[in-house]
Amino acid sequence: MDKMDGRRWHDxxxxxxxxxxxxxxDFAIWEKRVDALMILCGTKGHFTVDGLRRAxxxxxxxxxxxxxxxxxxxxxxxxxxxxxxxxxxxxxxxxMEQIKARGPSYGEASVKDG
Amino acid sequence: xxxxxxxDHLSPSGHPFRTDNDTPLSYFxxxxxxxxxLLIEKGVLSPAEIAAQIDVMDGxxxxxxxxxxxxxxTDPAFKARLLADAGAASQEMGFDIGPLNLIAVENTAxxxxxxxxxLCSCYPRNLLGLPxxxxxxxxxxxxxxxxxxSVLREFGVELPETTxxxxxxxxxxxxxxxxxxxxxxxxxxxxxxxxxxxxxxxMIGAGLPRAPGG
Amino acid sequence: MAERVRVKAxxxxxxxxxxxxxxxxxxxxxxxLGPFKNPEQLAYALPAAPKNLYRVRFTMAELWGAEAxxxxxxxxxxxxxxxxERLPDAP
Lengths: 114, 214, 91
Fold this sequence. Notes:
- The complex is a heterotrimer.
- Chain A is about 55% helix and about 0% strand.
- By secondary structure, chain A is mainly α.
- By secondary structure, chain B is of the alpha/beta class.
- Chain B has a two-stranded parallel sheet with strand order 1-4.
- In chain B, helix 3 (about 60-75) crosses helix 4 and helix 4 (about 75-85) packs across helix 5 (about 85-90).
- Chain B starts with about 25 loop residues before the first helix and ends in a 10-residue tail after the last helix.
- By secondary structure, chain C is mainly beta.
- Chain C has helices spanning about 40, 60-65, and strands at about 5, 25-35, 50-60, 75-80, 85.
- Chain C is globular.
- Chains in contact: A-B, A-C, B-C.
- At the A-B interface, helix 1, helix 4, helix 5 and helix 6 of A face helix 1, helix 2 and helix 7 of B.
- Strand 3 of chain B pairs parallel with strand 4 of chain C.
């Protein structure tokens, strides 16, 4: 590792890197929902885009390399909502367990009162 | 895991789930569903608001920016307003860009503009829709401010040595749209035909407009 | 007359919006954008005083020296006032 110089991982301008990959993808419905939650909760004052960025930066480079864009964004949205006291970690954890029990696919797990 | 649901692979409406709903449930998808349900139950958001916001974003595309560019190519007074205040000019055309602070930068015979965000991936999403994946990559974010001409070459744009390149690092509150130079041979084309020449990449500066008849 | 500024070279931890590669570098004010709430406060859900925001233009030669692809090309970036020091105009 380089010696500590105060540069953070997300602050990438000017670093050496390879060819720009041109492949893209269409957004899945769950990604669009993350985007909508991010915009709507920001508009309603539960966090700022700066608060989201701060959470993303604090996840570190491993999250950037290993998780997709909207995976990191839902984690940042959640982090900010927890910090804002909108719901508790206990509530989130309980709900995530309930959701996993609904079925093995995203569609099945999305049906709340199945 | 209970998997004896009577409507397996059918949504509550009785229709099959969309393909992207059929993927195995991931940790982060579980989190998305949980966050969304908690927000709805606590009255922060309604399902209708979420659906409406998705529709708004789906309705934003590079075609919006292309229409703005085509108007600027055909209406000098509009172009002057666009360069003075790109947000107001976009609103004037009916594009609701919300709180977006937009600056238009003009490509000319001797200047080319390229937009990047090295700190995250800021993009004029309220006008152009969501950014392409390459815009968010480490490679683009790292290299665009140091070797932009090499990056442009990878996108098929070879800048003459005499062209002055301005790279805009979208570091704070402003977002950028490149006003490309109107292509040669487009005289007499109407706004709609001109807009069809304007690609997303041309409005980021990573590409040039299509050639007429090309 | 363009105003010459230098981006402060300080390296505090936390949510900073002045990119590393611009810190300590000298440029010219391209335009003033007016006040915006300080993101370094907003990021922590703290009250955020407005800070004037400037677009600053740097030459590639200033940023990258001999490694610059084309020394006369520019990078332009938005920098908040508290990250800038004014310099005397060049002779």
